[in-house]
C-alpha cells in the first residue's frame, strides 16, 4: 500500500487466531479494519478485500521494535517536578523489546518495586534505515506515530540513579493503539488519565528537544532501522499506580492507549 499525504491509522491485530495488519476506516458509521497483505513497515502492503469490525479484534502493539530508544528530561515541567538538573544534550537510554505490550494488556507490578509510575509519551516509529540524518530531513525517515507509556519503577530509579533498569521490566512499554501517519509532531497534545482523572497534559511544542533534533542526535551514533521506536519524553504530572488502576494515554491525532495495572 502506497502511503499518501493523508493521515492513515495502521493497526496490528489478532483475529480468529491470525495476526494481521490493517488500515482503520469508517464504514456505515462503524470503525472497520481493512486487512492488508503484509506489514506496511516491511513491504508494499495492498488491501486484500477483507474487512473486519474493530470491535471484533484484539489490538496488538502496532509495531515489534528491534530497539527502543528513549529520552529523559525532555519537558522542563517534568524536570522541575522531580527536582532534577536540565541536561545540555538529550539524555538517552534504551528499553528492551521484551517490555512491549499492546492496548488492553496488563502492566504488571514487579516484585522488586513498591512504586511504579506512569509516563505518557509520544512514540515515533521509524520507517527507513537512518544513519547520520540531518535534522532538516529527519522527519522523512519517520513512518508514523503512536502512544506510549514509559512505565517506571521510580523507587529503583532513585536507588541506582539511572533510568535503564527501572524502565526495563516486562510490560513496562505499552504501545498503541495504532500507528498514525503524516502528523506534525510539534503540534500534538500528550495526556494521561488514571481511573478517568487527568494527571498529565502538555503540547509537544514544549519539548526541549523536538523529534527532528532527537533523530539527528541519535543517528549520528546509532543506526535506526524500520520498526525501531523513539520515546520522546514525558511532561509533568507523573505519579504512582497500584493494582486495579487503569491508565489511559491520549495523543491528539492518534487515539488512546488504555492498560490496566495488576499486582505481583
Automatic annotation (TrEMBL):
The keyword RNA-binding does not apply. Keywords: Hydrolase, Metal-binding. Residues 9-62 form the Rv2993c-like N-terminal domain. It comes from the Bacteria. The keyword Membrane does not apply. Its EC number is 3.7.-.-. InterPro entries: Fumarylacetoacetase-like_C, Fumarylacetoacetase_C_sf, Rv2993c-like_N. One of its GO terms (molecular function) is hydrolase activity. Residues 67-262 form the Fumarylacetoacetase-like C-terminal domain. This is Fumarylacetoacetate hydrolase family protein. It comes from Streptomyces litmocidini.
